[in-house]
Amino acid sequence: MNILFLGAQGSGKGTQADILATKVGVPHVASGDLLRAAIAQNTSVGKQAKPYYDRGDLVPDSIMVEMFLERLDEVDAKKGALLDGFPRTLAQAEALDQALGRVGKAVDQVIYLKADPNVLVQRLANRYICQAHQHPYNIITNPPKKPGVCDLDGSTLYQRSDDTEEAVRRRLEIFFSETIKLLEYYREKGKVQEIDAEQPIAEVTAAIMRALSL
Ligand code: ADP
Domains of the chain, with CATH numbers? Predict the structure, then answer.
């Protein structure tokens, strides 16, 4: 079962995919997490991607497609995955469909987490993630129990280098001009279910579970 989470920055994709991954028993695979790991380890991919990443621009398709498909090929993702942050362009969506198609698989369902851009900017300005596993928090709507420390693994929380006002504006612009085209692409295939992402976290989870008949 491959489920794609589609939504603008701050819509809660990562938070929801983390929760669902535990319930469904398939891994949460996030393109941004793969990139941040590559950048932190200073790999050749990380070095190439970093300038795009820091500006809030899309990293070139050639880099992203290879990186993400390699991750989906790992053993834990054989039964499926919750896809977060990839695909983001039509070229990536087509590359993904082809790769999955070759092994008799597909993107089975698409969950679109819909929220107003003003709400998104507010959420991103208050977002922190943890060093160890990138678990996301929001100091206003979803604070950790102990300030600055991840509830789940005890690691330190930090603000992402691309959560600056300028890069946030750029990322949202790209989402609503480019990535939004994927909605139409998957709608034509009858795969999209839309969820109101402005509700509290638990209610969004419940709505996704209903949409997926879980
Ligand atoms: P957000 O959804 O909040 O932008 P992510 O962690 O998913 O956060 O992505 C952060 C950055 O990583 C993006 O702004 C972009 O530079 C890069 N990135 C992630 N996924 C992709 C992708 N599929 N294609 C191109 N660039 C990507």
Answer: 2-115+166-211 (3.40.50.300)
